[in-house]
Fold:
Amino acid sequence: MNSLDQSYSMTLVFLSYFISAMASYTALDLGARLHYAKGRGRVFWLCAGAVSMGLGIWAMHFVAMLALHLPIAVQYDNLIVFFSIVLAVLSSALTLWIVSEQSMSKTRVVTGSVAIGSGIAGMHYTGMDKQFAGKSLRVLESDQRYKSLFEHNYDGVIFYSIDGSQSVMNPAAMRLTREQSLPLEKLMAMCTSRDAELISTHFTNAVQGEARNYEITLTTSEGRQLHLNMTHTPVFVDQQITGVFMIVRDITNKKEYEAKINYLAFHDSLTGLPNRRFVEQQLDQVIMEAQKTDQQVYVLFLDLDHFKLVNDSLGHDFGDLLLQEASLRLQDCVGEKGTVSRLAGDEFMVILTDVTEKEVSSMANEINQRIEQAFFIHGHELYITTSIGISRYPEDGQDRSVLMRNADAAMYAAKDKGKNSFHLYVPNLEQTVNDKMNIQNELNRALARQEFLLHYQPQVCAKSGAIVGVEALIRWDHPERGLLLPDQFISVAEETGLIVPIGEWVLRTACKQNKQWQEQGLMPLRVAVNLSARQFLKQDFTQMVAEILHQTGLAPEYLELEITESSMIDVQRATQALKELKQLGVHVAIDDFGTGYSSLYYLKEFPLNRLKIDRSFVRDMIEQPSNQAIVSTIISMAHHLQLHVIAEGVETKEELAFLQEHLCEEVQGYLFSRPLPSEDVAFYLQAQTGAS
Structure:
């Protein structure tokens, strides 16, 4: 790196040869004249020969220096140049004087040679090289700075010859590529064909004088993939391009960071699934493609039923693990047929294209079945379900927002059907969703305004017909809509969490009412209160029940709590709560048995008092043999587990007769009484007492 590029003008080189020959001829001719001259003539020829010879030597050397082209400007100091001429003339005079004597001894020849050699050397270093020395020093300093920039540059720098066959690499380039030499063809072989073409194109542009910047991906011999920013710069010498500098900057970390940021911007950090932003953009793209191909697009909205119970009872860490496991099951069901994304919380979305409605229904059913299977998380056996709403392009919407809104409406319709199901969108669902939103807003005020009340439906002995208990059923005395039944607002209360304070009000009111009936001298009986899963799985639930019993004065044996199978979402927690209630002396019944996912093993382990057969099995039991088989099996199984059985929804004598035949202990339904206000229950009890 310490040498300077140089070239010669051949014309001036030949001129210097000519001057040298003429000066030598003149000097020899004058030397011959000096040999024969004497006196003043000798002095004249000596001076003339010295001047001619000295100027000739100096002129030859000066012209030769002019023939040398350097990439720097060279200037001369006139005084030093004059001194070098004088030195050349004096050395020539001395040499001529020495060799002009009559006799030429060997000593004189050597002395003359030394004199003329010293003169020429002195003239060169004093006159020519001395003038160039200062400038050379500055050039070499500049060259050292260039070398430092090249050798110690943080970025890789590679110098290529015009044809790319020769390369010089700085240490950074060697460390980066793990190569000691990297001809252009070898560099291109380390890249993809696309990037190799980029290198070739931009190298050609640089050879033509155009600097270029671009990015490539390179794979080293060790298999490491690098993202590189490349800058090609032409190298000019005397206005001629002599090579190309390639500056190589490693941007791998930057690219990986950008990729990570981009991934986080479009993916859910918990499950790794695409997020709402990603799926909305993809849905827009899918709709555009479907418009061109006349394909159908299906949008599935999924919500995990009872998921909030997991967060409330076990904490968000368990909820996060459950979401991760549920997302894996969803991806397994959908596979390559569509895109699964997590919108927020426990809401997911699936986009399906190039499928039939039958295939979509089959997939939705498979998702329902997979999600309802037990989740085992940190020693807890958890059960949840999922509700799915489905909208179709173009039937149910022409753009993304409409399709997503309608799929969401269909999902809530699936929840209203009892959850753990799917529902296709139909136009009137939007009004249903709007009604639900209105109910949600009004529920917040209903409890404070004391708009709720309880009705009680008698539970009777199947054999004797005697009343043995009542079930407390909530009603909403809406100021505008009138008396609303639970199925019109309870699901909304569960979703919003209002079911907890409402449930506590129902429990307290029912216990207080039962105690009042007893204080009125009416026959003691148990009152059954329905519990929501969210309420049942609260940490302080048993303590709350004990406090209410204490405050109302009702004995524990006159309270029965009805829990649904969905309350068994966390089997371990449910078992512990049931044991605590058993110790308290409260009766516990499984409500709507047969509609959920109870494990018979845990059913055997649960400290229960009775099973309540769901009305869906009792209804049309006489006309449908399958329902008869289910009911008889449930009764038989419960008896083997030492549990009593109560059937709800009994409306005909034939249904009662079937239940009596299979030894069902208790029944309730419109065959005996509709749900009654508390005042009417008192009359009912008085009538029962009088009849007995």
Observations:
- The chain is about 55% helix and 20% strand.
- Residues 106-151 form the longest helix (46 residues).
